[in-house]
């Protein structure tokens, strides 16, 4: 009923297996590539090109099967014939899990290649090596729960637990400026009892006192209006300027720093990030200026002011701001997840802080290190050319439908069927009018519509599309179960 994934995408699997056999003298290598009938033209074209560039010898074993993705290790061993001069056998896709079975019966080293034959050049090229220290970071994430007083304790706890699971180091309880949170202590205790660190976001001295007595370890924020009361809270506070007026902001920060230092109150400074259109560039200069004025002082940046107030997906903005924080030794950020386009900000910041820390530590651009934040587009996009599609159309002799993208068109291919277009509805309408569509029952039609919709999404966004494989959305990817014929 369901569609067989075309072998053109499944010649080999798990490129990491190849790292164990990298050679500096390719002229001494003689590879034997195993494939099926359907992908033979594509395999011969790709292998010939890379062999000419690297200077290795090769042979290609075409197995008596149309789709090599359906091979099993036992089936392959019954049909595999390896030339005597072979130095290594490269087997097709979905055999990686059975590689040990094949290796045990073959006298030559056996490896699984790339998932896609078009990726063969990368398979033979040098891979970016990521050091073991990737994942270390210096920036703590404060995740704010906005209007926390309006939430039941059970809901508040659930949200806090999810934010911690996403990477937050501290949960910031955002108070309601219009009223006093009378049971703030209960909320803090609820989180503390669950092992969750928390801060309180308020200028109200009474709310801050109740929260810190209950276990809040940080108060956001203090300025001239409440800094005297902060001396009695017994916890760290965040200093903010009274205003962003260029003549006053630094003076108000200096006054607060002097007072808190005199009374040995720990603090971090947040000069306040302004939204685009409201002094954004000037606010960045303030952060840089405060860092120069107080080179050793802990600092914080409230990045939600930019992500929440810009019509733009938040991931890229978060990474850029985290990079500034990393370079200026701003070791904490405050973010929120209210607006729909920023609802994965904590996860983005969790990954982004590792990315920028690694880049600065190793003095390299943060590229080809971790693709988790490449969500809208893809790190690599492979497309079939017209020649490959033409060869495929001539080769397919069965009624299983294959879906491809080539030259800004969707292609639906089966025996005596080759439909193209950019509208899945129109393609399906044309298919159902053909005699060959008699094998398309309702469930089958649903599957084809689902895959065509995925292909159209990939075509629209310039993403990579493989039939029966989930579209890649970076850290937001949802894996799919393969719907191929057994």
Low-confidence stretches: 1-22
Structural class: alpha/beta
Number of helices: 15
Helix content estimate? 25-40%
Percent of residues in beta strands: 5-15%
Give the biggest beta sheet: 8 strands, parallel
Mean pLDDT reading: 88
**CA-based shape:** elongated
Structure, briefly:
The protein is α/β, with parallel strands linked by helices and 486 residues long. The protein is 35% helix and 14% strand.
Tell me about this structure.
The protein is an alpha/beta fold. It is 35% helix and 14% strand. The protein contains 15 helices and 15 strands. It has helices at 40-54, 73-79, 99-105, 120-124, 153-166, 184-193, 205-214, 249-262, 280-293, 304-307, 314-327, 345-362, 386-395, 424-432, 442-461; strands at residues 30-35, 57-62, 88-91, 110-112, 140-145, 170-174, 198-201, 218-222, 236-239, 267-269, 300-302, 332-335, 402-406, 409-414, 417-421. The strands form three sheets. It has an eight-stranded parallel β-sheet with strand order 10-9-8-7-6-5-12-11. The protein has a four-stranded parallel β-sheet with strand order 2-1-3-4, with helices on both faces. A three-stranded antiparallel β-sheet has the order 13-14-15, sandwiched between helices. Strand 7 (198-201), helix 7 and strand 8 form a beta-alpha-beta unit. Helix 5 crosses helix 6 (184-193) and helix 11 (314-327) packs across helix 12 (345-362). The longest helix is centred in the last third of the chain and has 20 residues, at 442-461. The N and C termini lie close together (10 Å). The model is unreliable at 1-22 (pLDDT under 50).
């Amino acid at each position: 009923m369901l569609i067989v994934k075309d072998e053109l995408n499944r010649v080999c699997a798990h490129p990491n297996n190849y790292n164990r056999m990298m050679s500096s003298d390719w002229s001494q290598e003689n590879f034997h590539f195993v494939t099926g009938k359907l992908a033979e033209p594509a395999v011969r074209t790709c292998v010939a090109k890379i062999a000419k560039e690297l200077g290795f010898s090769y042979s290609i074993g075409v197995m008596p099967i149309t789709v090599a993705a359906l091979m099993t290790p036992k089936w392959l061993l019954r049909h595999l014939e390896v030339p005597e001069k072979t130095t290594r056998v490269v087997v097709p896709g979905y055999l990686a899990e059975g590689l040990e079975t094949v290796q045990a019966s073959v006298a030559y080293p056996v490896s699984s290649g790339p998932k896609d034959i078009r990726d063969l050049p990368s398979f033979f090229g040098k891979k970016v090596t990521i050091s073991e220290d990737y994942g270390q970071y210096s920036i703590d994430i404060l995740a704010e729960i906005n209007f926390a007083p309006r939430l039941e304790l059970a809901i508040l706890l659930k949200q806090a637990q999810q934010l911690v699971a996403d990477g937050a180091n501290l949960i910031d309880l955002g108070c309601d400026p219009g009223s006093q949170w009378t049971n703030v202590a209960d909320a803090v205790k609820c989180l503390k009892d669950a092992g969750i660190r928390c801060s309180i976001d308020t200028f109200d001295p009474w709310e801050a006192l109740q929260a810190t007595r209950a276990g809040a370890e940080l108060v956001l924020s203090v300025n001239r209006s409440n800094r005297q009361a902060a001396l009695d809270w017994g916890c760290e506070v965040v200093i903010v300027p009274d205003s962003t007026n260029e003549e006053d902001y630094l003076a108000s920060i200096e006054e607060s720093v002097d007072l808190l230092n005199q009374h040995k109150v720990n603090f971090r400074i947040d000069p306040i990030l302004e939204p685009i259109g409201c002094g954004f560039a000037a606010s960045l200069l303030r952060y840089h200026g405060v860092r120069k004025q107080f080179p050793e002082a802990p600092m914080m940046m409230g990045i939600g002011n930019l992500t929440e107030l810009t019509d733009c997906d938040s991931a890229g903005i978060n990474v850029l701001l985290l990079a500034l924080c990393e370079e200026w030794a701003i070791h904490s950020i405050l973010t929120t997840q209210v607006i729909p386009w920023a609802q994965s900000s904590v996860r983005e910041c969790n990954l982004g802080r590792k990315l920028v820390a690694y880049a600065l530590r190793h003095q390299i651009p943060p590229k080809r290190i971790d693709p988790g934040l490449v969500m809208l587009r893809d790190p690599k996009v492979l497309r079939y050319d017209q020649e490959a599609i033409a060869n495929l159309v001539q080769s397919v002799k069965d009624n299983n439908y294959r879906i491809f993208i080539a030259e800004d068109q969707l292609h639906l291919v089966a025996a005596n069927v080759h439909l193209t277009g950019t509208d899945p509805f129109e393609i399906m309408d044309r298919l159902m009018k053909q005699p060959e569509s008699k094998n398309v029952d309702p469930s089958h039609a649903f599957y084809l519509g689902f895959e065509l919709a995925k292909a159209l999404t990939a075509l629209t966004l310039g993403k990579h599309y493989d039939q029966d494989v989930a579209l890649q959305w970076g850290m937001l990817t949802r894996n799919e179960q393969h719907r191929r014929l057994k």
